[in-house]
Design a protein that fits this description.
Blueprint lengths: L3 E5 L2 E4 L6 E4 H20 L9 E4 L5 E4 L2 H7 L5 H16 L4 H20 L4 H22 L1 E2 L5 H12 L8 H15 L1 E3 L2 E3 L5 E7 L7 E3 L2 E3 L11 E10 L19 H25 L3 E4 L5 H9 L3 E3 L4 H11 L3 E2 L11 E11 L2 E7 L7 E7 L2 H24 L1 E4 L3 H14 L5 H13 L1 H9 L4 H13 L5 E4 L4 E4 H4 L2 E3 H19 L3 E4 L20
Parallel strand pairs: 9-18, 12-13, 12-15, 13-14
Antiparallel strand pairs: 1-2, 3-23, 4-5, 6-19, 7-8, 10-18, 11-17, 12-16, 16-17, 19-22, 20-21
Helix pairs in contact: 1-3, 1-4, 2-3, 3-4, 3-17, 4-13, 4-17, 5-12, 5-13, 5-17, 6-7, 6-11, 7-11, 8-9, 12-13, 12-15, 14-15
Length: 547
């Protein structure tokens, strides 16, 4: 498209370089909608328990096999700016809730597709976005009314939520055991503040080791560190461990500035070596004097301190990561000490058992039986690397779903039930409007219905038949009726144990509507050329007119 915007007599006036690309009005909106819809279509087939997997191959040939929407969109190298906004929807959903990314992206894609059809009927995008906003507020209200209370002690419901999060993934065959592990882990790190439960998902660490089977996955009530004991003479198992966490090296520090020492006699050399040895021995002695029998050091431990620590029967680990140290502090109650000279008995933490164990050919150190661990570890096992990776993703979803449920204290039935209920009530809400806004609100209801429709399609069922049956049940007052994709029937999802966090549904609708609104409000896309590619020089006397 030319960037010529006005003519003064016969003289063209340029405001952009010749290398710049520009599309306006319907062209810009059509391109953006098509790009966003393409992203939604890429993940639509992964939705639900019968969703298909995607194989993603990167530039160096590494393969990821998953049906996790966030992972798929993160791995795809998307260039189109509107399509990138759809990836942002998935990222927001993943960061805020941790699950429901595919749902959010599919709804956003349908909202834009339906908006494109309304634009073709000469309905202005501003009218559409106004209708969408009103429908979003109504949807949130309907979902909140549907929410059912759940407490932190209701293990059965929480395990059903974790199990629902894992359906359709490779880990599904062991979902009962994994769901119990996820719920137990979340309950251990959950904290009650001002009457609300808060969970920091980072306090649940996941360590992967291929080998064994998925059912060998276990919860360690403490921390697992992928390191080995530094010295062969050190004990490999310590009960009633008194744990020191030190963030300074057990080595001779190099000076900050260039320095020179003149040694001209053997006595001076020996004296210098003795001073070094004393300094290293003092470091080890500080740990011994504190009463610690286990040491985790974030930096290096020299051979000599290793010897003295081993002689004192202390189990030591060196070069533990910062995240390991923080997790150990939360689990054992130990304080991280930055200066070895400051270490005292009061800084030590406690664990009932610390031991080294070989798993899949690698030595790992387990810190278990902590009094009140506020950081725990799930050790994931599986037959192959791809299986272990997919189990990790399934567990992440389960952990985040249970956390999201406890944070709001509410859940809703799954299987497309909330979407059908929202769609039904939004259509009734549309009747209170007149004119073009009513069309936009009905278009919003259609977009929400795309979730149960996709669930049916992905299970190889007839979407029209199943949607009709679901709508019929909801008209009769069956709010919790959804689609059982295994049997192909409409069932009460609460009785079937298919339930999801309310927070997922709320966030998915909010993110999808806001992204669709942002894309619809764009009517001019200007892609600037490279800086060195300057366009033709405007003729003298030319100005930039309004257009």
């Amino acid at each position: 498209m030319s960037n010529k915007v006005a003519q003064l007599g016969a003289q063209p006036i340029f405001i952009l370089s010749e290398s710049a690309m520009r599309s306006r009005g319907r062209d810009a909106q059509g391109n953006n909608i098509a790009a966003a819809k393409a992203v939604a279509d890429a993940v639509r087939t992964t939705l639900g328990p019968k969703g298909m997997d995607k194989m993603l191959i990167d530039s160096i040939g590494d393969i990821v096999i998953t049906n996790d929407g966030a992972t798929i969109l993160d791995q795809m190298q998307i260039e189109h700016p509107a399509a990138k906004m759809m990836v942002e929807v998935a990222k927001t959903q993943d960061e805020e809730v941790g699950d429901g990314t595919t749902t959010a992206v599919v709804i956003a894609g349908e909202l834009l597709k339906n908006a494109g059809e309304l634009i073709a009927q000469n309905i202005h995008p501003t009218v559409i976005t106004k209708g969408y906003r009103a429908a979003k507020e109504k949807s949130i209200q309907i979902l909140q009314e549907m929410g059912i209370d759940v407490s932190v002690d209701d293990d059965e419901k929480l395990e059903q939520i974790a199990g629902t999060a894992m359906t359709g993934k490779s880990a599904e065959k062991a979902s009962k055991e994994l769901a119990a592990v996820a719920v137990k882990a979340v309950k251990m790190v959950a904290e009650a503040k001002d009457g609300k439960v808060s969970v920091d998902a980072l306090d649940i660490r996941i360590k992967k080791k291929q080998g064994g089977s998925i059912s060998d996955t276990e919860l360690v009530e403490g921390v697992v560190i992928d390191k080995e004991v530094v010295h062969s003479a050190m004990p490999k198992r310590v009960e009633n461990a008194r744990i020191a966490l030190v963030n300074s090296e057990f080595e001779i520090k190099k000076t900050e500035i260039d320095s020179k020492i003149d040694i001209d006699t053997p006595e001076k050399l020996q004296s210098f070596l003795d001073a070094e040895e004393r300094s290293l021995k003092d470091m080890a002695q500080k740990v011994i004097d504190s009463g610690a029998n286990v040491l985790f050091c974030q930096k290096g431990i020299d051979d000599l301190p290793q010897h003295y620590l081993a002689k004192a029967g202390i189990l030591a680990i060196r070069r533990a990561s910062e995240s390991d140290m923080k997790a150990l502090s939360k689990s054992t109650g130990a304080k991280i000490v930055s200066n070895i000279k400051e270490l005292s008995k009061e800084d030590l933490g406690y664990a009932g058992l610390v031991y080294e164990k070989k798993i899949a050919g690698d030595e790992m150190v387990f810190v278990e039986k902590c009094k009140k661990p506020k950081a725990v570890t799930i050790l994931v096992r599986g037959g192959t690397e791809h299986v272990v990776d997919e189990v990790e993703r399934a567990l992440q979803d389960a952990i985040k779903d249970v956390s999201a449920t406890l944070e709001l204290g509410k859940f809703v039935p799954g299987g497309g039930a909330p979407e059908i209920e929202v769609s039904k009530n939004v259509r009734k809400f549309a009747e209170t409007f007149s004119g073009k806004e009513q069309l936009a609100i009905n278009a919003f209801a259609d977009a929400i219905e795309s979730i149960p429709r996709s669930l049916a399609e992905n299970a190889g069922l007839d979407p029209i038949d199943k949607l009709t049956a679901l709508i019929s049940e909801h008209e009769k007052g069956g709010k919790s009726f959804g689609l059982d994709v295994v049997s192909g029937d409409t069932k009460d999802m609460l009785k079937s144990g298919v339930i999801e966090p309310l927070k997922i549904k709320l966030q998915a609708i909010k993110s999808a509507e806001e992204a669709a609104e942002m894309i619809l409000r764009i009517d001019d896309v200007i892609s600037a050329g490279k800086a060195e590619e300057s366009g033709p020089t405007p003729p003298p006397g030319g100005g930039m007119n309004d257009y």
